[in-house]
Design brief:
12 strands, seven-stranded antiparallel beta sheet, mainly beta, 8% helix
């Protein structure tokens, strides 16, 4: 067994491994799969400086509670998510779109999503997962992808294939990440809104 892994204490409601999914296989009856919220999936990998098709853990409504075993690693969570990071001597409320270093014995307790359904957990390295047709994305209806096509299970071990030891801590303001301007074109019913509503929008 690898020396770095997560132990699943609680699985959450719908926790699976996802990446960008499978394309050009519909004619064979293979569904696309992949992350439901592509933006937050990509940001999760960007925060931990991974390849943008790296696997992450996707969860809905309530995420998993994980205990980490191994050498120090960095993690990030994206979405609108309430979570805690617990170590031997402290417990902190985590912030989304920010990286945290966790060490042997630390726990990540993903309590809930708030204004959204999905959230994503990434790490500075790579989960040790199996691939089918070029993707690890789990499709539970077809039983294909990582984890034998199943959701995470209580007491399961999630192995980590490698760790990025050259990682530098990162934080994203997700409302402004690499976006300087958004172009808006006024629609035909734009005048139906009050001037106050228009000002608030802009």
């Amino acid at each position: 067994m690898t020396s770095n892994y997560f132990k699943v204490i609680r699985t959450g409601i719908n926790s699976t491994f996802q990446d960008k999914g499978r394309s050009n296989l519909y004619h064979l009856g293979i569904p696309f799969s992949g992350a439901m919220d592509n933006r937050n999936y990509l940001l999760a990998n960007k925060l931990v400086q991974n390849n943008l098709n790296n696997p992450v853990i996707e969860f809905a409504y309530q995420g998993p509670h994980l205990k980490y075993v191994g050498e120090g690693i960095n993690i990030a969570i994206t979405g609108d998510v309430s979570f805690k990071i617990k170590s031997k001597n402290s417990e902190i409320d985590g912030n989304c779109y920010e990286t945290y270093k966790i060490n042997n014995g630390d726990e990540i307790d993903i309590l809930s999503t708030n204004q959204s359904v999905y959230g994503y957990l990434s790490l500075s390295g790579k989960f040790d997962v199996n691939y089918q047709w070029g993707s690890c994305s789990t499709n539970t209806k077809s039983n294909i992808g990582a984890n034998n096509g199943k959701k995470l299970q209580d007491e399961q071990t999630i192995k980590i294939e490698k760790i990025d030891k050259d990682f530098r801590k990162k934080k994203l303001n997700h409302f402004n990440s690499k976006i300087e301007k958004i172009r808006v074109i006024k629609g035909t019913n734009f005048d139906y809104f009050s001037q106050t509503a228009i000002n608030n929008f802009f």
